[in-house]
Design brief:
Layout (H helix, E strand, L loop, with lengths): L10 E4 L4 H8 L4 E10 L2 E12 L3 H20 L1
Antiparallel strand pairs: 1-3, 2-3
Amino acid sequence: MWSEKCLPPGTVHLRLPRLFQVAKRLGIDYAPAMVGFDYRNGRCLPVFDGIVVCTEFKQAILEVCCGMTSIFFECLNL
C-alpha cells in the first residue's frame, strides 16, 4: 500500500511488531501489508510492513498487543 487510499473499504493498516501472531491467536483473518519493493542484487523483492485487518477487529488486536507488551516489560523488571 503506497497510501491509505489503496486500502479496501472497511479495512485498516496496523504497523506494530508481531501483530500477525496476535491476529492468528485471536482467529482473526488478516493479510500481510505489502508497502513497496526493494531492489537487491538485481532482483525486485516485495517489502512487507504490518498487517491489514477489518476495522471492527482493530481495537481487539491493539488491546491484546498492549497487554502482551506490558506483561513482557513486567517480566523484564523481575
